[in-house]
Design a protein that fits this description.
There is one protein chain. This protein has about 400 residues and is mainly β. It has one domain: Porin (Beta Barrel), CATH 2.40.160. It has 3 helices and 22 strands. It has a 16-stranded antiparallel barrel with strand order 2-3-4-5-6-7-8-9-10-13-14-15-18-19-20-22. The protein has a two-stranded antiparallel ribbon with strand order 11-12. It has a two-stranded antiparallel ribbon with strand order 16-17. A hairpin with a 2-residue loop joins strand 16 and strand 17 (about 315). Keywords: Signal.
């Protein structure tokens, strides 16, 4: 049995042994810290109507001719602590991907949850609003192409946040990712947001972010999966064009990303969109590279629930009637362009339709259909796919 399966089995038994279903399992109070245990398990299934690429292969070098792919997507185990005083801490690990998640300590000034300093590994303010939202409440099975390709998620660093329920400014300085042989390169990020309307069932939000980071002389490789997170093959890919493998004299030195975001909630409807543009600054003669992407999505809670709002991101409510569950319909348009001048990374746009069912407090079922169009120079590849996810969380 693989190590992550053994660890996951023990975690599931602990969660199921709890007296009742909860969003978290309270463990103990140690040293004035109230410790709780959370977990998230996701299993995905993809069925491809492929064009020219074997997306059902387990790895890009093992083309098996299958038109489907199924795998455990996440197995996240998280310990959280509140106290003593205004201190909060979290230690998370993904047993499936063998990597550390949030692992940090936060100090809140006064009783203001939006005024704090944080040290450790955390999601950077230069990530998308979608990335900053809770993974268990993803609107679609695959996150947007800009979230997966252009944003900078978790890194080790220090962050200062100042604001209130309706606005905030965040600044961070970061280094490498905590897990070895993952993302690295130091940099800084800032994000600001403002919700001129913020009341129950009626939210209007605007935000912007900026990130600047070093590539540690390795350059950067930008690529996008065809709206299926576990697919190993990427048609849209800059390859070695922006890395040190291209040339020691013209690889990418620094990268900067500008992001813009907007959110509108009215009753059971939610509309959100984000845009990002990335600039790769290169040594020597070649011109700098610029790529961009965006998405626009809409969600409708068929059972009438509305969204909440916390720390500049929307929050998904529990079902009003647990036995009936919370039903959602969603539609998203997504686009990314990684071609600029001599760098032909390709372009991709997609439409995804989905239905989500949150049942009781711990289960979620998702079904998506995605239509993807990809171009790279004179080449094209246009797969369609049916995706399903089963999720258990506590």
């Amino acid at each position: 049995m693989k190590p992550y399966r053994s660890l996951l089995t023990l975690a599931l038994l602990a969660a199921l042994a709890a007296p009742a279903a909860h969003a978290e399992v309270a463990l103990d109070v140690i040293g004035g810290s109230e410790i709780s245990f959370e977990g998230l398990v996701q299993a995905d299934f993809y069925n491809f109507d492929t064009d020219g690429i074997d997306y059902g292969a387990d790895v890009s070098t093992d083309l098996d001719g299958k038109d489907y792919l199924q795998e455990l997507r996440r197995a996240e185990l998280v310990l959280k602590g509140k106290g003593p005083g205004n201190i909060e801490w979290v230690l998370g690990y993904d047993a499936k991907d063998d990597k550390w998640l949030d692992a940090n300590v936060k100090y809140k000034f006064g009783n203001n949850a939006n005024h704090f300093i944080q040290v450790g590994q955390f999601k950077q303010p230069g990530a998308t609003m979608e990335e900053l939202s809770s993974t268990k409440n993803n609107d679609f099975i695959s996150k947007s192409s800009i979230t997966n390709s252009l944003g900078t998620p978790r890194r080790v660093g220090v962050q200062y946040n100042y604001g209130d329920n309706n606005w905030a400014l965040t600044a961070s300085y970061f280094g490498r990712e905590l897990t070895r042989n993952r993302e690295h390169g130091s940099g800084y990020a800032v994000r600001g947001y403002w919700a001129p309307i913020n009341e129950a069932g009626n939210i209007l939000h605007f935000g912007a972010s900026y990130i600047d980071k070093d590539t540690d002389s390795d350059g950067i490789r930008l690529r996008a999966r065809p709206m299926a997170d576990m697919v190993p093959t990427r048609f849209v890919d800059t390859g070695s064009s922006l890395t040190s493998a291209a040339s020691l004299n013209n690889h990418t030195d620094r990268v900067s990303v500008i992001g813009a975001e907007a959110l509108w909630v009215t009753g059971p409807f939610k509309l959100q969109g984000e845009y990002m543009t990335i600039d790769a600054q290169r040594y020597g003669g070649p011109a700098d590279f610029t790529g961009s992407g965006y998405y626009v999505s809409g969600l409708w809670n068929l059972t009438g629930e509305t969204w909440g709002y916390k720390a500049g991101v929307p929050t998904t409510p529990l079902p009003s009637e647990p036995t009936k569950g919370l039903w959602q319909l969603g539609l998203r348009y997504d686009a990314i362009d990684l071609t600029d001048g001599a760098v032909v990374g390709g372009e991709m746009d997609s439409i995804t339709a989905g239905v989500n069912w949150y049942w009781r407090s711990n289960f979620k079922f998702m079904l998506n259909y995605a239509m993807v169009n990809q171009e790279k120079g004179v080449l094209e590849d246009n797969p369609n796919m049916l995706e399903a996810r089963v999720q258990f969380y506590w």
